[in-house]
Give the backbone structure.
Amino acid sequence: MMRADANGGWFQEKILLGLTPRDYLRTLLTPMNGVAFFICAIGVPLLLYRFYAGLGATTNLTQSQPWGVWIGFDMMTGIALAAGGFTIGAAVEIFGLKEFHPIERPAILTGFLGYIMAVIGLIADLGKPWNMVQIFAQNGTRSVLFEVAWCVVCYTCVLSLEFAVPFFEWLGVKRIYQPLRKALLALTVLSVMFSSMHQSALGSLFIIAPGKLHPLWWSPWIFAFFFMTAIIAGISMVIVESTISHKVFAHQLEGQHHDADALTLGLGKAGAVVLFAYFFLKLQGVIDAHAWGYIGQGFLGVWWLVEMLGFVLLPSMLFAWGARNRRVGAVRVAGAIAVLGIILNRVNVSMVAWDWQNPDHYVPSWIELWVSLTLVTLGVLAFRWIVNRMPVLREPADLAAGHH
Amino acid sequence: MSMQRRTFLKVAGATGVAAAAGQAGADFGDPAGAGENAVLVDTTLCVGCRGCEAACAEANALPEPPSGDAVLGSLRKTGVSSFTVVNRFEGPGEPRFAKRQCMHCVEPACASACPVRALDKKPNGPVAYHKERCMGCRYCLVACPFEVPKYEYAKAIPTVRKCTFCAARQAEGKAPACTSACPSGALTFGKRGELVLEAKRRVYAQGSKYVPHVYGEHEAGGTNWLYISDVDFSRLDMKVTVADASYPQLVKGALGVPPFVMTLWPPLLMGIYAFSHRRQQVAKHEGRETP
Ligand code: SF4
C-alpha cells in the first residue's frame, strides 16, 4: 500500500528524501561526512576487534581502574546528557509549560540516542555481555548496579515508545502513533520516575568506595549531586542542541513561529537556579565530609576548584546575567560551559579522581578514545538522519494541517 | 520404631547444638559471623616459607609460584593466577612476613555490589564466585576495599579471580589448602567466634609483644581472615584506612530511595499535571493564554 502511492516508490520518498539514488549519494559528499566516515571506518572495526582480542589488548584498564572511558564517558556522561528527554518532557507534559513544546521531541530523540550509545558502550565494556540476561534471573537487590541495570532497561523501553510516535508518523501508521500520542502523559510520568532513579543511582555506584574516590568528590550524598547535575545537563543540552538545530536544520523550521530566543532565555533562568543550588549543596557536601582541607591541595584539589568555579559557578552567573539582560548569546555560551562542566564532572568522578592515591594513574588507550568518538559520531549521524526524515523539529503533517 | 528413635536423636542433637551455639554466643560477646569458618594469621609466627602459596596453586590449578626467595624482595599483590602471596617487610630486627588473600568479609562489599550474585557469601564463610553468571561489569573490583578481586583482562572471555577459601575442600570437611600446608602454626583454621577470642588471648597474654589490635575483627564490618602482629599493620601493607562499618551498609540509604520514588513520584506528578492543566483550562476559559 505504501509502496504504490508515489512513482519514485516508497524507498525513494521516505529514505532518499525524494531524490534519485544518484542525487542522494551526491548530497552525501560533504567534508563533514568525510570526517564522520573516516572516524567510523576505523572505529567500527576497532569495536569488533575488542570482542575478538579482549579488553586487555584494546584498553588500558587495570585492576585498580576497572572502569575507563567506556563507562566513565559513554555511560556516565551519555546518560547525563540524555537527561533533556525527561526534563523537557516533564516541563511540557506535566508542568504544562507549553512554550517548551517545540523542543520536546528533539530532546526525547537525544535522550533515546544517548541511551542507545551508552548501551553499546556498555556492551563493549562488559567482559561477558551475554550474561546481562542474568539481571532478570538473579535478585541482586543489594547492588546499586542492579538498580542501574533495571533503570537502563525500563527507561530505554519508555524512550523507544516515546520515539515511536514520530517514527510511525513518518511511516504513516496511524493505528500505532495515535494511541501512543495519547499515552504521552503516562510515558512522561514513567520517564521522570525511571530517570530520577537512574541518574541518581549512577552516583550511588560510588558510595561503596569511599577510600578510592577523592574526598572532594566522594560523598554519601553523591546520588543527589548526580540527580541535580542531570537536570542541569538536561537544560543545558537543550539550549546547546536547539542552537545547533536552528543553524543546521533551519529549513525544517520554516514557517514555524515559535520564539527560539524566549525559549532559550527561559531555560537560562532555570539553569541559573539549579546550578546555583548545586554549587552550594556541593560546598555543604564538602563540609559534611570534613574534606575542606583538601581544597586547593595538590593537583586534584586545584582541579576541583576549576570544576566548581569555572564550570559550575561561572555558567550559573552567566545564565543569570544573560536571562536578566535578555542576552541570548550569553545564555547559549553558559549552556555550552555547563554541558562541558557535566562531562568534566562525570569524567572526574569515574576516572580523574578515582584511584587517586595510586601514582600510576590510568590514561585511556587510543582505541578506547576512538571507539568512544565513533559512538558519538554515530549518534550525531543518527540524529541528523532521523531529523531529516521524521517529524521531530517540524510538526507532524496531520497536526500542522489542522492547526492555527 | 528405630526410625522414631533416630528422629528423637536428631531433634535432641539439634537442640543440643542450638543450646551450645547460644551459649557460645553469650561467651564470645557474639561477634558477627561467629559460627563461620575463619583463619587467624599470627604474623609473628610466619617464617616466609611460602608453602601456602604452593599449596594454593596446587589446590586451585594455578601456575606454580616462583621458587626461591628473590620474589620476596619486592612487594607483590595477588593476581589472576596467584590467589595468595607472602610479602617480606624489613625490620626492626627480624624481617616480618604477611600472607595476603581474600579476606572473606562477614558482609562482603563485592557480593553486595554484584548485580547478578555471581559473588555470593556462603553461610559457612567463603565468598564464592559463579563464573557462569558473571557478566564482567567489574563492579566487584570497584567495591572491594581490600582490592582483592582481579579481572582477566588478557582473555577474550574473562572471569573474576580471587581466593576461594577452598570452598570445595571445606564442603568435604577439609581445611583450606594453605592452612593445612603451613608448617609454622602461623595459620589457624577454625570458627570465627573462637578465633577472635584466641587472637585476643594471645595479644593480652603477651601484651608487650603484640600490637593491641586484631585486624579484621571490625574492619569492613568484620572479616573471616583475622591478623595479629607485633608491628603496626600499616607496616605490613595492610589497608589501615578501611572503615569499621560494613560496606554494604553504606549504600543502604541510597538503595532505600527507589521504593519511595516509585510510590510517590507518579501521584505527585499527576497532581502537578492536574493542577497545571486546570490552570490552563481556566485561563483559556477567561480568554487569555498562559504566558
Ligand atoms: S564482574 Fe562479575 S562477579 Fe564482579 S560484580 Fe560484575 S557480574 Fe559480579
